[in-house]
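Proteins fold reproducibly. Take a tokenised chain:

. . .
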Amino acid sequence: MAGVYDEAVAIGAELTELRRAIHAEPEIGLDLPRTQRKVLDALAGLPLEISLGTGLSSVTAVLRGGQPGKTVLLRADMDALPVTERSGMPYASQTDGAMHACGHDLHTAMLCGAAKVLSARSADLAGNVIFMFQPGEEGPGGGRIMVDEGVLDAAGDRPVAAYALHVASGLLPFGLFASRSGTIMAAADTLHVTVHGRGGHGSQPHRAADPVPVACEIVLALQTMVTRQFDVFDPVVLTVGTFHAGTADNVIPDDAHFVATIRSFSPHARDAVQKAAPRTAVQVAAAHGLTATAEFRDGYPVTINDATELAFAEQTLAGLLGDGRYFAAPDPLTGSEDFSYVLEQVPGAFLMLGACPPDADPFAAPFNHSAEAVFDDAVLPDGTALYAELALERLAQAAGA
């Protein structure tokens, strides 16, 4: 039988066709009926146990090997973003206001390819593989819902390892994988603050209780908080993205409201900022004789790579594609990922893969989430082969333990 990489290359045209079909019909959020149908069609005829989600358009496929063994999980996200595409590609989105600007269409095609490659080897497979096709990564938290609906137990026993790949349209050169041990992606939470004042005439602020300067002071106090109360080597990033108050220049409003995104890189820092940020807002308002409501809303947890599983992934990658294809990232990414919900329960690894076209400068190319982002289909066999090889090698390792 040909090697895994050769098999992935042999189906490269098929993977490209699937990826471009998904790209042309992007869907957003948890309900992705057309994407789900494309995945099911791609998996048709393979010896898989398939189940669909109830709270979202997920696909869970289990491949049972011919030999007894453990279970490994492979994950791909399927949803697009609310972005109007300006890439100019012939297979660009046909849906206004929706685009696969983060490369999830590539992940989906790669995992379908890995299912096909592994299915051809099922008789010799020492254990089971769970293929997790997940909607709603871009905000709704489809990963958490799939975990709640039982994806981790789909094969009957919990996976011993879980792996996910994510392409990048910039920053990483074409074909280069990157990751790091420990925190690889930040937690992403939000802080909602409303300062309650008393409205009045703009010319007589002393007869009112102006919430606007107080809200502004809270914004500045929060910036001081993250630099004075948190370790520079375990930082917190806080950015106020919306600020709303008032209806006219000469009217003091009753309330001022703002929302901030908060990124943290360890469970400890996340827990600390969850307490410190609302407390700061409430107490600054109180110092001015006003009140404030401050709500910390949980988003995605910190995405943490298991050191042993990442080392295994690096070794597997080198054996599959040769040396020089992996970069050890010195710092985490400040974006977030709901694969974190899987990694909270299963040791595993999350790796980035450069998909910037080779003729483009990766440091100047539009990055993920840009309306002009372009991902090169030529990386599809690389991702497909690595998904498959990780499952094969990890199950073989578990069987020999």
